[in-house]
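A favour, since you know our C-alpha coordinates better than I do. What I am after is a single protein written out in full by you. Could you add the entry underneath, on a fresh line?


***
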Amino acid sequence: MPTRYSHSVRTSASVEAVWEALQQPDVWASVAGVDDTSNHRNLNGRLSGFDFSTSIAGMTYRGSARVSEAVPGRSMTLSIRSNELIGTIQVAFDDTDEGTDLDVSMQISPNGLVGAMVFPAVSSALRTGFPESVERLAASLD
Protein backbone atom coordinates (compact mmCIF):
# COMPACT_ATOMS: atom_id res chain seq x y z
CA MET A 1 0.00 0.00 0.00
CA PRO A 2 1.44 3.42 -0.96
CA THR A 3 2.45 5.89 1.73
CA ARG A 4 1.99 9.59 1.01
CA TYR A 5 3.77 12.62 2.42
CA SER A 6 2.92 16.23 1.63
CA HIS A 7 3.91 19.71 2.71
CA SER A 8 3.00 23.19 1.50
CA VAL A 9 5.14 26.30 1.69
CA ARG A 10 5.48 29.73 0.08
CA THR A 11 8.56 31.09 -1.65
CA SER A 12 9.21 34.65 -2.77
CA ALA A 13 10.40 33.29 -6.13
CA SER A 14 8.28 33.78 -9.23
CA VAL A 15 6.48 30.91 -10.94
CA GLU A 16 8.97 31.22 -13.81
CA ALA A 17 11.93 30.93 -11.43
CA VAL A 18 10.37 27.85 -9.78
CA TRP A 19 9.83 26.20 -13.16
CA GLU A 20 13.41 26.88 -14.21
CA ALA A 21 14.75 25.54 -10.90
CA LEU A 22 12.79 22.30 -11.33
CA GLN A 23 14.80 21.62 -14.48
CA GLN A 24 17.85 21.01 -12.24
CA PRO A 25 18.25 17.50 -10.75
CA ASP A 26 19.92 18.90 -7.62
CA VAL A 27 16.72 20.80 -6.78
CA TRP A 28 14.80 17.50 -6.84
CA ALA A 29 17.54 15.90 -4.77
CA SER A 30 16.87 18.37 -1.97
CA VAL A 31 13.16 17.50 -1.97
CA ALA A 32 13.65 13.75 -1.87
CA GLY A 33 16.59 13.71 0.50
CA VAL A 34 18.85 12.32 -2.21
CA ASP A 35 22.60 12.47 -1.58
CA ASP A 36 23.81 12.43 -5.19
CA THR A 37 22.47 12.71 -8.74
CA SER A 38 24.16 11.61 -11.96
CA ASN A 39 23.48 10.78 -15.60
CA HIS A 40 21.26 13.85 -15.99
CA ARG A 41 19.02 13.63 -19.04
CA ASN A 42 17.34 16.49 -20.88
CA LEU A 43 14.99 16.66 -23.82
CA ASN A 44 14.45 19.93 -25.69
CA GLY A 45 16.07 21.89 -22.87
CA ARG A 46 13.90 20.35 -20.15
CA LEU A 47 14.80 17.80 -17.52
CA SER A 48 13.68 14.31 -18.51
CA GLY A 49 15.43 12.16 -15.89
CA PHE A 50 18.45 11.31 -13.77
CA ASP A 51 19.95 8.59 -11.61
CA PHE A 52 20.26 9.02 -7.84
CA SER A 53 21.71 7.53 -4.70
CA THR A 54 20.78 8.11 -1.09
CA SER A 55 21.63 6.69 2.30
CA ILE A 56 18.82 5.92 4.73
CA ALA A 57 19.19 4.00 7.97
CA GLY A 58 22.76 3.00 7.12
CA MET A 59 21.96 1.59 3.67
CA THR A 60 22.70 3.15 0.27
CA TYR A 61 19.93 2.98 -2.31
CA ARG A 62 20.37 3.66 -6.02
CA GLY A 63 17.63 4.34 -8.48
CA SER A 64 16.34 6.43 -11.34
CA ALA A 65 13.89 9.25 -11.72
CA ARG A 66 12.08 10.32 -14.86
CA VAL A 67 9.72 13.18 -15.52
CA SER A 68 6.33 11.55 -15.89
CA GLU A 69 4.26 14.72 -16.10
CA ALA A 70 5.12 18.37 -16.64
CA VAL A 71 2.80 21.34 -17.04
CA PRO A 72 5.03 24.40 -17.55
CA GLY A 73 4.35 27.05 -14.94
CA ARG A 74 2.04 24.74 -12.93
CA SER A 75 3.53 21.39 -11.87
CA MET A 76 6.11 18.72 -12.44
CA THR A 77 6.04 15.06 -11.39
CA LEU A 78 8.86 12.55 -11.22
CA SER A 79 8.40 8.81 -11.21
CA ILE A 80 11.09 7.21 -9.04
CA ARG A 81 12.24 3.60 -9.02
CA SER A 82 14.86 1.63 -7.18
CA ASN A 83 15.21 -2.04 -6.32
CA GLU A 84 13.55 -1.24 -2.98
CA LEU A 85 11.00 1.53 -3.71
CA ILE A 86 8.73 2.90 -6.40
CA GLY A 87 6.75 6.11 -6.32
CA THR A 88 6.25 9.69 -7.40
CA ILE A 89 7.28 13.15 -6.29
CA GLN A 90 5.18 16.11 -7.40
CA VAL A 91 5.75 19.84 -7.06
CA ALA A 92 2.65 21.87 -7.90
CA PHE A 93 2.91 25.64 -7.72
CA ASP A 94 0.67 28.67 -8.00
CA ASP A 95 1.32 32.39 -8.31
CA THR A 96 0.30 34.59 -5.36
CA ASP A 97 0.72 38.28 -4.56
CA GLU A 98 3.55 37.37 -2.18
CA GLY A 99 5.37 34.90 -4.43
CA THR A 100 4.61 31.29 -5.27
CA ASP A 101 2.81 28.64 -3.22
CA LEU A 102 4.42 25.20 -3.46
CA ASP A 103 2.48 22.00 -2.77
CA VAL A 104 4.95 19.13 -2.67
CA SER A 105 3.93 15.51 -2.32
CA MET A 106 5.67 12.16 -2.38
CA GLN A 107 4.03 8.78 -2.68
CA ILE A 108 6.10 5.63 -2.25
CA SER A 109 5.57 1.89 -2.04
CA PRO A 110 7.94 -0.96 -1.29
CA ASN A 111 9.31 -2.79 -4.31
CA GLY A 112 9.98 -6.48 -3.81
CA LEU A 113 10.94 -8.46 -0.74
CA VAL A 114 13.90 -6.29 0.24
CA GLY A 115 11.73 -3.21 -0.23
CA ALA A 116 9.16 -4.60 2.18
CA MET A 117 11.89 -5.21 4.75
CA VAL A 118 13.45 -1.72 4.58
CA PHE A 119 10.21 0.22 4.02
CA PRO A 120 9.54 0.93 7.72
CA ALA A 121 12.95 2.60 8.15
CA VAL A 122 12.61 4.58 4.92
CA SER A 123 9.08 5.62 5.77
CA SER A 124 10.12 6.77 9.23
CA ALA A 125 12.97 8.87 7.82
CA LEU A 126 10.65 10.50 5.30
CA ARG A 127 7.91 11.16 7.85
CA THR A 128 10.29 13.21 9.97
CA GLY A 129 12.44 14.72 7.21
CA PHE A 130 10.06 15.49 4.34
CA PRO A 131 8.59 18.78 5.68
CA GLU A 132 12.08 20.10 6.43
CA SER A 133 13.30 19.20 2.95
CA VAL A 134 10.36 21.10 1.39
CA GLU A 135 11.17 24.11 3.57
CA ARG A 136 14.80 23.92 2.35
CA LEU A 137 13.55 23.81 -1.23
CA ALA A 138 11.54 27.00 -0.72
CA ALA A 139 14.49 28.72 0.98
CA SER A 140 16.80 27.78 -1.89
CA LEU A 141 14.39 29.44 -4.33
CA ASP A 142 14.12 32.73 -2.39
User: Anything to note?
Assistant: The longest strand covers residues 59-71. The domain at 3-141 is CATH 3.30.530.20 (Alpha-D-Glucose-1,6-Bisphosphate; Chain A, domain 4). The chain has a mean pLDDT of 90.
